[in-house]
Amino acid sequence: MESGRKKWGSGEAENEIDTMATITIKGIISLLIANIDEGNNKRLISLGMGDPSVYSCFRTTHVATDSVIHSIESSEFNGYAPTPGLPQTRKAIADYLSRDLPYKLSLEDVFITSGCTQAIDVALSILVRPGANVLIPKPGFPIYQLSASFRGMEVRYYDLLPERRWEANLDAIEALTDQNTVALVIINPNNPCGSVYSYKHLEKIAETARKLSIPIISDEVYGHLAFGGNRFIPMGVFGSSVPVITLGSLSKRWMVPGWRLGWFAITDPTNLFITPKEHVMVFLINSLTLADANTSYYSSCQIIERLKRYFDILGGSATFIQAAVPRIIEQTDGAFFRKTTNLLKQASDVFMEKIQEIPCITCPHKPEGSMAVMVKLNLSQLENISDDIDFCFKLAKEESVIILPGLAVGLKNWLRITFAADPSFLEEGLVRMKSFCYRHINRQHGN
Known about the structure:
Layout: H1 25-34, E1 45-46, H2 62-73, H3 87-98, E2 110-113, H4 115-127, E3 133-138, H5 143-150, E4 154-161, E5 167-168, H6 170-176, E6 181-187, H7 199-212, E7 216-219, E8 244-249, E9 262-267, H8 277-285, H9 290-312, H10 319-331, H11 334-355, E10 361-362, E11 372-377, H12 388-399, E12 401-402, E13 404-405, E14 414-418, H13 423-439
Parallel strand pairs: 1-12, 3-4, 3-6, 6-7, 7-8
Antiparallel strand pairs: 2-9, 4-5, 8-9, 10-11, 11-14, 13-14
Helix pairs in contact: 2-10, 3-10, 4-5, 4-9, 8-9, 11-13
């Protein structure tokens, strides 16, 4: 083995910046809304943002609101919280995550963030170094691209395969990885595809990352929002073979995205990030010097130290929200979660029934998790529609319906539709989309 062997989470090569990282979901939706013709007297139906809290059927539990009120009224949480978060909050989240793991996390493994978006930025910030690259799924969540580019980190995209229920292309991951690759990002349950990975596929992802010596950033902001054939399995289950950085939040499962309470958790029971004894042994077995082995040790330690220092300069979630978390987690009734997943399942049924009536749109798979789904736009069946962006802007103008062009999440001439909406709004929005498509149908293709 060469002395330059790949180390967990490290990379050393010339840096490249992807200047194409200019797209944000909120930015595009704002432009689409501005394009609406107010004279058509149609109510706005937005199926573009993953925020179901605007609908009365998707309200958070009373335990959550009561806990926040109690936190405020106590007057005990008006000051600054410790930079990694309140200890009781970190412990509550560690215990919550540990429910689904074969080992127990401690509060030292958890850091509180201002929503999952900040957790994404933290994850990339602590791993960045000159020449670093990160593997991101396509389609994916554009914040990864934006954050990486701001940090001077190269983004390399691996495909999710619609013909395989949006599984990750593992061959592409191997081909894209080099000594400068610092992490592999997965999103499960998946936004924007609506898929939920099986245990077997997650195991293959873990095996691939272990072979390549790269940690996994597992975005589980939609954790437990699974209502199809596969139950949700946290990537941390495989933390013994590959270090996993788990990102999550209260936002989706508790329907409170505006509370901005997220977390960054390290699942690394064999201490590959902190004291990588396995690396030292591999180096020694291959006749490397002790100095080389120590270099690996210090490189891994730097990840943890950078994490601690970075949180010192961050502004985290509001203290009173953090203080409410232990009670929210401990006392939320399972019936609340079952109601949410049942509503999402019903919404996905409505979505599939109506989307199949639209001739120019193909949905490769019924959504089984999260709140969004990808559908393919068949432009040959349409007249005067040049691409997915043109489709979305004209749909907004003519029908006051907002959906996201696929280009925003990395797939040109696809569309991302959020189905987490009141059923009547969802159905009306899809009926209007059907009318729009028939109005622009290419008559050569018939009805």
